[in-house]
Design a protein that fits this description.
Blueprint lengths: L1 H10 L3 H15 L11 E3 L2 E6 L34 H9 L3 E2 L9 E5 L17 H10 L12 H11 L5 E4 L6 H13 L4 E4 L14 H15 E3 L5 E3 L15 H4 L5 H11 L14 E4 L4 E5 L4 H14 L2 E5 L2 H7 L5 E5 L2 H7 L11
Parallel strand pairs: 5-6, 10-11, 11-12
Antiparallel strand pairs: 1-2, 2-4, 3-4, 7-8, 9-10
Length: 365
């Protein structure tokens, strides 16, 4: 409806002309519009509905006269009075947000624009348990059996409509069959959004099925078909949603390869200078480099392992306070929750100058 609103407003015309065009469309599509089927009107501000939210619910509210613009007489007051004080009502009248009936015997309403509509997310969502498998079967045919219990598109699209804005990026770290990607694209089509998605999945290969690749053969293939279009299980062509995506693979890189070429000695010297401690030479045979500062011990970890973590914990306990520099500070912070230690990344200027080299020109770790 927002897309229709934008299209009508772009074409221009008077409020009466807009209403005539919108009424014709509304009559044709009314059965498809719940819960928005009370948004029957349009003006130069957009599609709107009348709401009795100016009426005070449950207990006595404010009492004052609101004059009807045609008869000049006070409009009939709600049973419990008005919800807003008179000053707020004056502002709403000036903003032309109050809707009047044919005469003063009708209750007034508040004009609510469609752009301000916010649905309430139900605490209980009822879905057909066959929806997800049927949707996957429509895309893959009998091949859909390669993935069990896929989530329904409608469920994820409903949730995303509440928690995302049109320009957001949606991350699904357990992408499964790729339902999230399809839900994002469907929601974009519905509200003309520009949401993007990042899906993460594994091959789910086992010793019994070493060639299995769920990410490539199901998730990525589903995204590809939904984008470009496909023929469903009934033999009917389905138009693609458009767009594009990149299928990328991540491989484990040995630490020795990642950190090859780092000039640890220069980095250790620079860290000592930063903390104004007495310089000590870098000793490659040690699992960590330590230097006593005025308030805490400065520690540099060239690499991280279980054995080194145990030695680091012992060093922290003995020092009382420690500043630990590492190429993996986030990992250390997760593994060692010791309030006496702060875990810092190697400063960027040291990474740029003394980081891992790639070929003759060099690079970063």
């Amino acid at each position: 409806m927002l897309a229709l609103e934008a299209s009508l407003l772009r074409k221009g015309g008077t409020a009466a002309q807009l209403q005539k065009a919108y009424s014709a469309w509304f009559k044709e599509h009314k059965s498809e519009l719940p819960p928005l089927d009370n948004y029957k009107y349009i003006d130069l501000g957009g599609i709107y509905a009348g709401s009795r939210s100016v009426h005070n619910p449950g207990k006595e509210g404010y009492r004052y006269d609101v004059l009807h613009p045609e008869t000049g007489k006070p409009c009939k007051q709600p049973l419990m009075g008005y919800r807003f004080p008179e000053g707020t009502m004056t502002d709403l009248l000036n903003e032309k947000r109050i809707l009047f009936g044919d005469d003063h015997t009708k209750l007034i309403e508040l004009k609510i624009y469609l752009r301000d509509y916010r649905r309430k997310l139900s605490s209980v969502v009822t879905l057909d348990g066959r929806a997800g498998p049927n949707e996957l079967k429509a895309i893959f045919g009998d091949e859909s059996k390669v993935f069990n219990n896929p989530k329904p598109i409608g469920l994820l699209q409903e949730l995303l409509s509440f928690v995302t804005s049109p320009g957001d990026i949606v991350l699904d770290f357990f992408a499964g069959s790729g339902t999230t990607a399809q839900a994002v694209m469907s929601l974009n089509k519905e509200d003309e959004g520009n949401r993007r998605f990042i899906l993460v999945s594994s091959t789910e290969a086992t010793h019994e099925t070493p060639d299995k690749n769920l990410c490539r053969d199901v998730c990525a293939e589903r995204v590809r078909r939904v984008i470009t279009g496909y023929t469903n299980s009934k033999g009917e062509p389905v138009t693609g949603l458009g767009g594009g995506f990149a299928y990328l693979r991540c491989r484990r890189i040995p630490a020795a390869t990642v950190f090859r070429g780092i000039q640890h000695a220069q980095i250790w010297t620079a860290l000592q200078l930063i903390h104004d401690v007495a310089l000590s030479p870098y000793q490659a045979a040690l699992p960590m480099q330590t230097a006593q500062g005025k308030r805490s011990v400065v520690i540099y970890l060239p690499k991280v392992s279980d054995a080194i973590l145990e030695a680091l914990q012992t060093a922290i306990q003995g020092a009382g306070q420690a500043v630990v520099y590492s190429w993996q500070p986030a990992l250390l912070a997760q593994r060692l929750t010791d309030p006496r230690a702060s875990f810092e990344a190697i400063p960027a200027f040291l990474v740029n100058r003394f980081g891992a080299r790639s070929g003759a020109k060099g690079g970063r770790p």
